[in-house]
């Protein structure tokens, strides 16, 4: 279990900027806070920090084991066949981190030279620092790789999309149920300021404004319950639906989150593998929220996409042949490597580790059959 951290007594440069903005213009939404804390061009967490890996603040599945990228690579080759093996297609990764997943996928895809030849690889990454790291890692790749800041910049074509731990960093809003019986009985949780002895710091406030029942929020919500919405995710689903109705496409999202929309405050910050108070020293810790896969599924269906899942990562990776791949790799490994391979594979599927809390969902063009691994 991760330890909690008490935060920083000093505010960061970004926190000072935000305090000034709030002092002049009033409290801001959590989504705006998250956007600045993660992506501020000068002080954002992804702009300034080495986020991933054992040295970084957290570790992701592709950094834990090469098997993750290899199995997903095989899934993508299959998805390419399912969309009719187009001789030219977009292969898009959203939020590629250190580029490890893409490296492992492209290595696996060497088994299918026609897939590699047809793929136009797009890395959708809005942090210059991350981009640089990805470019270093993928410099020896033969595939044509283009970097863009958003999915909108990628031309329309048959498409495969992969995104691991991307949805969780999209900015959320939080609404708190009041005890009112009226139609408008939710308030928004906002970021304001509190005046501490040592100076003003950021603090949560409730909006004066009242809101209607948020879409997908359970009707059973009680006073004080928190419900989270994610407009950026809704916009992303719209964009995918526009593309997948015009050209065949399949997308795979992997993230931690819940299968059904429920109430709960899941906003969290992590720094050096410890929980960090979300509003302390903005820009110095990673901030995420659990993904509402229930809402994602419903929203995608409303947009006429075919949806497979959500299912757990553990089940999905086992369906894709994790055990067999592990056996293969262990054959040519020394004792230490064998241990590392086994430990990594276990972490990915163990229900007490990433196996259960991480979910997988696939979104496809309306005409496509069920995606592999979801049966
Ligand atoms: N997929 C990687 C890293 C996930 S962390 C892995 O599995 O290891 C999230 C990544 O998304 C980072 O690279 C971050 O810079 C990027 N990112 C965050 N918000 C983004 C946005 N709105 N648009 C594009 N990239 C974004």
Report on the structure:
This protein is α/β, with parallel strands linked by helices. The chain has 13 helices and 16 strands. It has helices at 13-25, 30-39, 45-48, 61-64, 66-82, 100-108, 113-118, 128-137, 231-246, 293-302, 313-319, 322-331, 335-349; strands at 28-29, 89-94, 119-124, 145-148, 159-164, 173-177, 186-196, 199-211, 226-229, 249-258, 268-271, 274-276, 286-288, 291-292, 306-312, 358-364. Strands 2, 3, 4, 5, 10, 14, 15 and 16 form an 8-stranded mixed sheet that branches. Strands 1, 6, 7, 8 and 9 form a 5-stranded antiparallel sheet that branches. The protein has a 3-stranded antiparallel sheet with strand order 12-11-13. Helix 8 links the parallel strand 3 (119-124) and strand 4 (145-148). Helix 5 crosses helix 6 (100-108) and helix 12 (322-331) packs antiparallel against helix 13. The longest helix is centred in the N-terminal third of the chain and has 17 residues, at 66-82. The radius of gyration is 21 Å and the shape is globular. 45% of the residues are buried. S-adenosyl-L-homocysteine binds at residues 46, 52, 60, 62-63, 95-97, 101, 124-127, 130, 164-166, 169.
């Amino acid at each position: 279990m991760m330890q909690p951290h008490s935060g920083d007594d000093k505010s960061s440069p970004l926190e000072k900027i935000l305090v000034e903005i709030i002092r002049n213009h009033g409290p801001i939404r959590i989504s705006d806070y998250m956007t600045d804390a993660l992506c501020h061009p000068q002080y954002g967490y992804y702009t300034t920090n080495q986020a991933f890996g054992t040295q970084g603040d957290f570790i992701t599945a592709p950094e834990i084991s090469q098997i993750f990228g290899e199995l997903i690579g095989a899934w993508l080759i299959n998805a390419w066949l399912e969309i009719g093996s187009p001789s030219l297609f977009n292969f898009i990764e959203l939020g590629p981190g250190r580029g490890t997943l893409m490296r492992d996928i492209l290595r696996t895809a060497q088994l299918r030279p026609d897939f590699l030849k047809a793929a136009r690889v797009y890395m959708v990454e809005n942090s210059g620092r991350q981009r640089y790291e990805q470019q270093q890692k993928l410099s020896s790749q033969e595939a044509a790789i283009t970097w863009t800041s958003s999915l909108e910049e990628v031309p329309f074509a048959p498409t495969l999309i992969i995104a691991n731990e991307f949805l969780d960093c999209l900015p959320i809003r939080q609404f708190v149920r009041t005890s009112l019986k009226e139609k408008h009985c939710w308030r928004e949780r906002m970021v304001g300021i509190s005046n501490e002895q040592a100076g003003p710091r950021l603090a949560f406030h409730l909006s004066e404004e009242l809101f209607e029942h948020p879409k997908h929020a359970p009707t059973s919500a009680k006073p004080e319950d928190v419900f989270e919405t994610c407009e950026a995710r809704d916009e992303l689903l719209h964009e995918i639906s526009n593309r997948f109705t015009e050209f065949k496409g399949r997308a795979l999202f992997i993230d931690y989150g819940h299968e059904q929309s429920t109430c709960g405050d899941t906003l969290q910050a992590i720094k050096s593998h410890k929980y960090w108070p979300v509003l302390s020293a903005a820009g110095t810790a990673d901030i995420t929220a659990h993904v509402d896969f229930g809402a994602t599924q419903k929203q995608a269906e409303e947009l006429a996409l075919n949806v497979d899942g959500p299912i757990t990562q553990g089940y999905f990776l086992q369906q894709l042949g994790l055990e067999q791949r592990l056996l293969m790799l262990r054959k040519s490994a020394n004792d230490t490597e064998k241990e590392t391979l086994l430990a990594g594979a276990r972490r990915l599927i163990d229900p007490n580790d990433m196996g259960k809390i991480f979910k997988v969902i696939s979104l496809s063009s309306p005409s496509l059959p069920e995606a592999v691994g979801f049966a």
